[in-house]
Design goal:
The chain has three domains: 3-235, 3-Layer(aba) Sandwich (Rossmann fold); 309-383, Luciferase, domain 3, CATH 2.30.38; 388-492, GMP Synthetase, Chain A, domain 3 (2-Layer Sandwich). The chain contains 15 helices and 28 strands. Helix 2 crosses helix 3. The relative contact order is 0.09.
Amino acid sequence: MNLLEAFDHPVRRQPHAPAFVTPDRVLSYQEADERVRRMAGALRALGLGAGDRVALRLPNSPSFVLAILALCRLGAVAVPVPRRRPAEQLAPTVQRLGVRWTLGLVEADALAETRFVAVDDALLAPVSDAERGLAHAPGGEALALITLSSGTTGEPKAMGRSHRRIWRQWEQQQRIRPHGPGVRMAVMMGLDANYAVMTCLRMLLSGAAVVLAPDAGMASLSDAVDRLGANHVLTSPALVGRLMPQLSRDRQRFPALESFRLAGSLVQPALLLQLRRMVCDDVCSDYGASEVGALADGDREVIDRLPGSVGYLMPWVVGEACGDDGQALPAGSSGRLRFRGEGFPDGYLEDPDASARVFVDGWFYPGDTGRIHADGAVVLEARSDEIINVGGTKVRPEEVEQVLLQDENIAEAAAYGVQTARGQTLLVAALVCRGPVDVPQTLQRCHAVLGQRAPARLVKIERLPRNEAGKVLRRELAARTTVRQAQPEAERAG
């Protein structure tokens, strides 16, 4: 099955229902389908065809998602890439993946050694009857989409998704979180992010509406909910950090929202509690990975009951903790987490070395340590590569951040290690504050709870550096921090 065949169902059932809602207009399913066919026809006339890999450097707009569907109709492969990232940084990935075309708005979006096509009115010219009568290209196991990792540890890794896999992931999600007509999902994060683009596709296959805004600020979110009728929101912790100073602590800003879902990086339970008071009742954060999709459902009951939990395993996922020797540990034991499940890939696209480190003997290792209880509750303890060794004491950043976030004047917190001139590791925590914070008292509170695992310094900054997926860039924080040999007080990051 080609993904377009799945999209054809809501087009036939509800042609006049909204598929996209933007500040400027509402695009019905019938209109969206017509745009897909016109874009596909124009691209076919330019010589683009089955198997061609096409970079998408577009802003958040219906055209971004419709371009993916148009490429599916041709049997081509969409490769969403960050529009704000410099083209020279993307060049190695583009060359390695064999991308030969770029779709963008202006010539500045063009990538080296690719043919640039502007997404403008010329791409929406009426198609001939002959073009309209052509069948969709074969789908099945053929690639439809290539998504990229954030690239925080080097060159981005690529994950290939076939038509069949995207359809199967939609079926799986519908089993636990059904969407359909009447749902308006505001996607407030870049569509180059895996979770965001997959959410848009799932909404369209379900007959729901996708609400898109030109940016991810408070004004756009308010407009999406208050005027455009969004009843669900998908966003990232990065946006939440910018929003919290603009939210009241005493009342919910969007009480009618049915869900406010965070994706891209983990969210501390203390922050979730704050957001429930300030945004809406149903604020949750799923646990997953761009490589395999959702691993645990952000179930509120288990998150509230079990500290550090990120929810229960998805029904199609098997998970366990194992030791350094690769042997499975008893339920509830702490170790390296690994998962396997229906539809999981067996590696990265065209990257055997990276695949061998993460996909082992049918298991996917996301790089996290934690516990999986007998009832399927997943508890995360740390990223394996983020544990900080402070004089022989192993510190998980999350446990430090959890203590700091108990102060409601601290909107965000990130713990990290900094090397001193003597070669020692100093534990530092960066704070984004929404009100006055007594630094000595905060340090004292941390020491009372954490002992040797408490931070030695606090750094006040306006915003935590994050990648496009919302993950905190701890290395960048460390590079920006100058540690002075002085009494414990708030430092400043350069």
